[in-house]
Amino acid sequence: MSSISIDETTRDPAFPGVFLRMDSIEKSFPGVKALQGVSFSVARGEVHGLVGENGAGKSTLMKVLAGAYHANGGQMELNGEIITAPTPAAMIERGVAVIYQEFAQADHLSVAENIFMNRLPRNQFGQINWAVAARDAETAMSRLGFNIDPRRTVGSLSVAQRQMVEIARASSRNAQLIVLDEPSAVLGDNELEKLFATIRSLQAEGVAFIYISHRLKEIFELCQRATVLRDGRMVSSRPIEEWTPDTLIQSMVGRPIADYFPKRNAQPGEEVLGVSGFSRGKALRNVSLTLRRGEIVGICGLAGAGRSELLRAIVGRDPVDAGEISLHGRKQDIASPRKAIQLGLGFAPEDRKTEGLFLSQSVKFNVTISKLGRFGSPAKLNLGKERGAVRDYVRQLRVKTPEVDTKIGTLSGGNQQKCVIAKQLNAQCDILLIDEPTRGVDVGARREIYELLVDLVEREGLAVLMVSSELPEIIGMCDRILVMREGEISAELPRGSSEEEIMKHATFH
Amino acid sequence: MAAPDRMTETAGRKFFIGLPRGAGLVWVLIGLCILATFLSPSFLNPVNVTNVLRQVALFGIVSVGMTFVILTKGIDLSVGSILGVCSVTTALLLVAGWTMPAVVAAVLVIGVLMGAVNGLGITLGGIPPFIMTLGMMVMGRGLALTLANGQPVSIGGRAAEFMWLGRGAALGLPVPVWIFAIVAGVAIYVLRYTTYGRQIYAVGSNAEAAHLSGINVGLVTFSVYMISGFLASLTALIFVSRLTVGEPTAGTGIELEAIAITVIGGTSLFGGEGGILGTIIGAGILAILANIMNLLGISPFTQQIVKGAIIIGAALYEMLGKRRSRH
């Protein structure tokens, strides 16, 4: 896919000229090239859409723009000035404001204090002039077409209101370029309209926006140009008229599926897990699914679609407002992870390090902790038996560790993940829920984990429900694919579906 | 992502159970003993040795409870006050004519209950352990002083039958030492051979992962404060027996001593690492240090300076060890 000339200016003749130019930006982390040769530009008064899959590099690019990350290569130009020392303060000074999904606000402080954080108006003695602060805050807000009592604490505001306060903060600092990271994820339709109105009014004053969203509908409604990132590279940057939803999705996704998934001989048996009507606010909306023995079912979708929330609700970690689960045909009330384990549900959480492992403990400790009953009575554990069992798992799963007493934090990501799976096997699970099976696992170990999962369902008769952000993985491993979107299952696709088709159901268009 | 190139590290459970990073501390202890013998000929005197062992025992019992709490990433600042309340109660009940077994039972229950209050505040109330036990410490001391009317309570005539607990001996060793040996032995067993012991390490190491592993984090947390309270009350009984008075100020500062002993012994304040053997050695180190300084006639104030320096030194040692293992 070719890139477009980055000298193209905005279509609005009142504000010609490029405000931001990012040229061949490179950013690497140990072992990972997050951004490679990314170039694009944003003109004054332009709303520029930035799209891409999870992990495409959007956040990293914005952090480079915000001065939070230092690029390893390439350069940034703001208003014709090449930025040599990008720090957050320097970028803010030059008019760049980034509004993250998790607002950088002090909940217990007032609206005025948040808008003027660190810049509260003071009198000649250095004391804060609260009256001026309140008045200036009101001015800033009314410029944007809304008003909230500046003395109210931010913590008492709705999310939409907090977002407005964030924008007011940026605008009061005379931001010339405001980055909005998934602003609509937390808004209702009504609030969205207000947001758009605010954006457009600032746009008329020459403020530029970078609008990051998975909701393509909004991109088409609001943006003059859109740039697609994929795997850390800029695929294409064009005026919005030159995109269609299909071509946009195709750019986001188009990549050959690596041929390293094990051959599968799927012979699904009886139903082992049935979820019906799971609901919790906006996070989960009437979700139902079934899982059969010998099956690998995948759950995919964009960040925030509810995939991890679904798994956590099934294993009783998070509550649901409505819905039922049945295991092996019997209705069950899974009120806690403890109960889930007793009923044979194994759960490998999304964030291995903070949720799945006891990093300072040994491999042995980690593998056996959720079911020690196999090694004796609670008051008398047979340590020898435990050691033997863990050694067996280590051998069976080919975990590379010097001994079972080795601190698990020193193992590689792939081996840690194998231990997490071993832990579920030790707990005698027959249904394995696994969230991001190969996150933080290098290519070599990935294949081993795929083989392990296939082995578990084909030879040991387990059933696997797998959440993944990586479409090749979902497509290569799963017998059925459930696509989630905004808390619902928007489609169930068969094995062999294309990435485009999946993305279509994962986004709005 | 490439596998990190690090020296592998065992989680320290081979020979010296519960001792972190090998047996370095044992050598410190042995070294101190040797140093003591050089510095003062009276050190190896049987009476002196018995004194030291008794010191180890008295502080050690409370420290075992503190170890359980710290392993869960908590802290118990109230053990001194619980000891005070229980001392006064012991004396008052004895004076009131209760039988020995009844007094012992009642006082132990009080210790457990006060610990339970801590536990409830921390689990159900969500109050950070530092604050909850701090509040209990202040309240407890006030309670002890109120019960005692600000004065030590003598147990008078009951002293004779109660003496064996704090002043008796069996097979040449003071009774408190035997009690400590049993307490420590049980504690070591529990932490190593029971499911409950594992759960304590899990909760301290990563509470979220422990929850997802099916552990009732709240129950485990609650229980260790009860254990701590229980051991404080047990120590109170011994104190009263030795002094024949229930002092409302008994145990003042013992919480800091117990924390110091636990931390010097290698149990991490960040939870999930350490154990009872380390605590025993920590108690030994501090007791011998105090003994040496006493034998040398060093003023108690200077002793405090030295003790504080040791605590900082031990913590530095642990931090350096962590930093090394991270590379």
Describe the overall structure.
The complex is a heterodimer of chains A (509) and B (327). With 509 residues, chain A is an alpha/beta fold. Among the domains of chain A are: 271-344 and 429-506, Rossmann fold; 363-427, no CATH class. Chain A is 32% helix and 25% strand. Chain A has 17 helices and 22 strands. A six-stranded mixed beta sheet of chain A has the order 6-7-8-3-9-10, sandwiched between helices. In chain A, strands 16-19-20-13-21-22 form a six-stranded mixed beta sheet, with helices on both faces. The two termini of chain A are 22 Å apart. Chain B has a single domain, classed as ABC transporter involved in vitamin B12 uptake, BtuC, CATH 1.10.3470. In chain B, the strands form two sheets. Chain B has a two-stranded antiparallel sheet. In chain B, strands 2-3 form a two-stranded antiparallel ribbon. Chain A binds chain B through residues 30-32, 315, 317, 336-338, 340-342, 347, 349, 354-362, 365, 369-373, 378-381, 383, 400-403, 405-407, 410-415, 423, 427, 440-442, and chain B through 1-4, 6, 8-11, 13-14, 192-196, 198, 201-202, 205-206, 208-216, 272-273, 325.
Structural class of chain A: alpha/beta
Name of the CATH class of one domain in chain A: Alpha Beta
Q: What would the average pLDDT of chain A be, to the nearest integer?
A: 87
Oligomer: heterodimer
Low-confidence stretches of chain B: 1-22
CATH superfamily of one domain in chain A: P-loop containing nucleotide triphosphate hydrolases
CATH architecture of one domain in chain A: 3-Layer(aba) Sandwich
Structural class of chain B: mainly alpha
Instruction: Provide a count of the helices of chain A.
Output: 17
Q: Care to give the gist of this entry?
A:
Chain A is an alpha/beta fold. Chain A has helices spanning 58-66, 88-93, 111-115, 130-143, 159-172, 189-204, 216-222, 245-253, 307-314, 337-342, 352-356, 363-368, 383-396, 413-426, 443-458, 471-477, 499-506; strands spanning 18-29, 32-43, 47-51, 73-78, 81-82, 96-99, 177-181, 208-212, 225-230, 233-239, 271-280, 284-292, 296-301, 322-327, 330-332, 345-348, 376-377, 380-381, 431-435, 463-467, 480-485, 488-494. Among the domains of chain A are: 271-344 and 429-506, P-loop containing nucleotide triphosphate hydrolases (Rossmann fold, 3-Layer(aba) Sandwich); 363-427, no CATH class.
